[in-house]
Structure formats: C-alpha cells, structure tokens
Design brief:
The protein is an all-alpha fold. The protein has a single domain (about 5-175, about 190-375), classed as Growth Hormone, Chain: A (Up-down Bundle), CATH 1.20.1250.20. It is about 80% helix and about 0% strand. The protein has helices at about 5-15, 20-30, 35-65, 65-85, 90-105, 110-115, 125-150, 155-175, 195-230, 230-255, 265-275, 290-315, 320-345, 350-375. Helix 3 (about 35-65) packs antiparallel against helix 4 and helix 4 (about 65-85) packs antiparallel against helix 8. It starts with a helix and ends in a 5-residue tail after the last helix.
Length: about 375
C-alpha cells in the first residue's frame, strides 16, 4: 500500500476531528445570533465554497494538489485564529465562515486526488469503506469530547483543539507525495457519452442529497438543544452513538461484498435514507425516535456512499481529478444554498421541522425523476 493511502487516512482523522463541527450552530446561538442570522452564516459559507471551487480546482491541477491542500489548511487555520482572538459579533463570525469556506475549496479534491492517483482502482471500494469508517468514528469521538468540553469549559477550548487538528492536517499533507500524471491518460476511464452520463447522474444525486442533508448536519445540534432542551454533553453522546453504529453496520455490510458497482443501489440507498429520517421532523415526535431514525439513515448512507464514490472515482481522468471533485463540491454547495433560500422564505410561515419535510420531499422527487430518466436512457451498472 502506497504511503499516500496511509497518510490520507491520517488526514481524514485530523480533518474530521472537529469539535465545533457538531456544535457550531449551538455556539452561534449561545453568543446571541438569531436563527435567521445563523442560516445566513451557513449560506455564506456554502456561497464562498460555490464561488471559489472552480478557481481553486484549476489551481490544484496547475500547481499541484499537495500545495493546494496545504494552502487550504492554512486558510482554515487563519479562520480559527480569528475566532480565538476576536469578539463575538456577527461580522467576525461572517469573516470566519468566508475564510473557512475558501480554505475548504483548496482542500476539496486536492488531498483526495493525492490519495486516488496512487491507489489501486480495484481496491477503491475497500478504501472508501475504510475512509467512511474513520470519518464516522472520528466525528463520533469528537462529538463526545466536544459536548463535554463545551459544557464544562466553554467553546473557546473547543476552538483551540480544532486549531491544533488543523496544524496536524498541514503536517500530514507535507509528508504526502505527488505523482506526476500530467502526460498520462487514465486507462480506467471510458470515453464518450457513457462516462459523462455517469458523472452527471452522480452530480444530480449529490445535489439532491445536499439540498436536504447538509441542513440536517448543520442544524442537528441546534434542533436537539432548542427543541428538546438537550445539554451539549448529551448531544455529543447521542451524535456519537448514531454515527458509530451506522458506520459499523455499513462497514460490515460492505465487507460482505454482495452489492456490485451499480447506480441503482445508489438511488435505492439515497431514497431510503430520506424515508428513514423524515420521522425525526414529524410533529410531536418522541425523543427516542430521533436517534433510532438518524442511526438507520446513517447506516444506509454508509452502505451506498462507498459505491457512489467508487463509481465517481473510476470515471474521472487522473489529470482532471481535482477539477471534477471541485465541480462535485460546487453542486453540493449549490444544493445547500438553495435550501438556505427555501428556509429563509418558508421559515417566515412554517416551523423549521416543516421546512425540513418540504426539503426532503423535493429531494425525493429529484431522486425519483433522475432514476427514472437514467433507467430509460442507459444501463449504468459497471
């Protein structure tokens, strides 16, 4: 196994050990920022990603993925320093979100490209499953730690720990090597209409997923805290339990290797994930139902996500990989921006839970329409 693969898994660990990732909306609320302004902050974050993804993707392809990853981590480091040494005004939070969003665009695609360009295509599914397991495990662990620290010592300590993780990200990327692929063409990439169709379908799936699920992740701690009165340490434990159980079940199912690389499984998984999570936002939902539904939805995602990633990775040429991954991030950002706009409009008339159900319904329609269209045009199974 190439050292980049090991280092990429280490990078996944440090980049997802983000205590504030779970509690950012709660932190904004704790310093007096209203829900509408919190929505604005998340929208600006996604908008900055949307604007800078293409330019930073070109820069990564031109000047190197390793340099791009390091620059992105430095941007995020600067954003955290602004939080640590500034006040709690909306303007500072806005600056933080913009710089963090720009930093993300330098990282997205670039560090992943360093990993994929040196990985055996036949093992991508296995590596993706390992990555998902690390992602969920680290996010779960950081949620528990974050809940305890935020509750007992305050959010400032959480930002300090996150800043240390960013520094470790920079060190990890520094040790990664970059394969010279400028004059090579990927033998794995099929030419013409078939490949473009596969990529287009995956981008539609990513858009529909982002339209509803980015909001679930961004506002989940706020929903549990404001709607059900949960303390931060309890929220951390609940989130950790849900993520770990979902990841473990997903990894076990993927290990059975009975699901071949086929886009139909992706659509089935995406639709089932939404159906399973809708009850969380039903009126007068019992608190016990929330972690059960959330865990089941995460489990389904952990099963179909590696298939989606492998399908995407195998159909993108190495020399344009960073650019296409940036395009994927743009689609995700665009979906979350549109949800923020929807939330801004409908939030004046409906409760947040109602807005979420409407968003899920729209995503379901997009999944079904694109699946029907896909099946009528071409068989995308590989």
């Amino acid at each position: 196994m190439h050292k980049n693969i090991y280092l990429y898994f280490v990078f996944v660990f440090f980049s997802n050990f983000s205590i504030m990732g779970t509690f950012l909306s709660l932190y904004f609320n704790s310093i007096g920022i209203s829900l509408s302004n919190i929505a604005t902050l998340f929208m600006i974050y996604q908008l900055s990603k949307f604007i800078f993804e293409v330019p930073t993707g070109f820069l990564a392809d031109k000047y190197g993925n390793r340099v791009s990853g390091i620059v992105g981590a430095i941007f995020i480091l600067v954003a955290n320093i602004i939080i640590l040494f500034s006040g709690c005004s909306f303007a500072y939070m806005l600056t933080y979100m913009i710089i963090k969003g720009i930093g993300y665009t330098f990282i997205s695609g670039s560090v992943e490209a360093l990993f994929i360009n040196t990985a055996d295509n036949g093992k991508l599914g296995k590596y993706n499953a390992i990555e998902r397991l690390i992602f969920y495990s680290v996010t779960a662990f950081s949620s528990v730690i974050g809940g305890i620290i935020a509750g007992d010592f305050g959010y400032r300590i959480c930002f300090i720990i996150d800043t240390a993780m960013v520094i470790m990200m920079i060190i990890t990327v520094l040790f990664m090597s970059e394969k010279n692929i400028s004059n090579k063409k990927s033998n794995e990439v099929q030419k013409g209409y078939r490949v473009s169709k596969i990529l287009a379908v995956i981008l539609i799936i990513d858009f529909a997923t982002a339209f509803s699920f980015v909001a679930v992740e961004d506002y989940y701690s706020y929903y549990l805290g404001s709607g059900f009165g949960m303390a931060s340490n309890t929220i951390g434990i609940v989130v950790a339990f849900q993520l770990l159980l979902g990841a473990l079940i997903g990894a076990i199912v993927h290990k059975m290797n009975f699901m071949r690389l086929n886009v139909n499984y992706i659509f089935i998984g995406a639709i089932l994930s939404i159906i399973l999570i809708i009850p969380i936002y039903m009126k007068s939902v019992n608190l016990i139902v929330i972690p059960i539904c959330y865990t089941l939805s995460n489990t389904v995602f952990a099963i179909y996500a590696p298939i989606k990633y492998e399908l995407f990775q195998k159909n993108v040429a190495n020399e344009h990989r960073a650019f296409f991954i940036s395009m994927q991030s743009i689609v995700i950002s665009f979906g979350s921006i549109l949800f923020s706009a929807l939330n801004s409009v409908l939030g004046r008339f409906f409760e947040y839970a109602v807005v979420m159900i409407i968003a899920f319904a729209i995503s379901l329609v997009l999944y079904m329409a694109s699946w029907i269209y896909t099946r009528s045009c071409i068989d995308l199974g590989l």
